[in-house]
Amino acid sequence: MVVLLFIQSNEWLMKLYTLSSPGASPGLMTRMNTYRYDHRGAAQYVKSHFQPGDLIIVGIPHIFEHYAGMSGDYYIDTVLTKKITYNEKFAEPRFMDKFRGYPTIRSLRELREVTSRGRRTWLIFVPYGGFSNLNSPEARVYLNEYAKVVFESYRAKVLLIGGESQPVNLAAGYNAE
């Protein structure tokens, strides 16, 4: 009985037990003083592999800009879970994210339109647990089919969609199974 009390109250032992809770909203986010989301690694990877004509879609624009020293092109939220505002000042009026004013991708159709514009499209998801919260099942199926993971670190993933792998018919329906 005493051993059980010791195990439950020992902070050091509990740190060894698990890295963190699963998903994007664990109790304390990460183990204290041990791991943090790898925003820097993902941003530096994209910065070092970025080429002219590439597009960047980020989950948290201002943090990506801070670590990469460059700006992204779009923000993605295909299930509209975050606060976005409508801006009629764009050449084509559309919704934008609340941090940097990036145009927001709100549907699979918009995602397909955007990815067809660039030679390659980078998608940066840090923390990666938020990926399923920000994207519809159809968008996740599409990304699983056409995007490949090119960088992965602690709760961070960078996906790349190559320009040659894009479907040509943007008007065609795409349903999740």
* Helix percent band: 25-40%
- Average of per-residue pLDDT values: 76
Alpha-carbon distance between the termini? 50 Å
Number of domains: 2
Order of helices and strands: HHHEHEEEEHEHHEE
Low-confidence stretches: 19-23, 165-177
Name a few traits of the molecule.
two-stranded antiparallel ribbon, 7 helices, 2 domains, alpha/beta, six-stranded mixed beta sheet
Structural write-up:
- The structure is a single chain.
- This protein is α/β, with parallel strands linked by helices and 177 residues long.
- It has two domains: 35 residues, no CATH class; 127 residues.
- The strands form two sheets. It has a six-stranded mixed beta sheet, with helices on both faces. Strands 3-4 form a two-stranded antiparallel sheet.
- The radius of gyration is 19 Å and the shape is globular.
- The C terminus is likely disordered.
Give the topology, please.
Elements: H1 2-9, H2 11-17, H3 39-49, E1 55-58, H4 61-68, E2 74-76, E3 84-87, E4 94-97, E5 104-105, H5 108-117, E6 120-125, H6 131-134, H7 137-146, E7 148-153, E8 156-162
Parallel strand pairs: 1-2, 1-6, 2-5
Antiparallel strand pairs: 3-4, 6-8, 7-8
Quick gist of this model?
The protein is α/β, with parallel strands linked by helices.
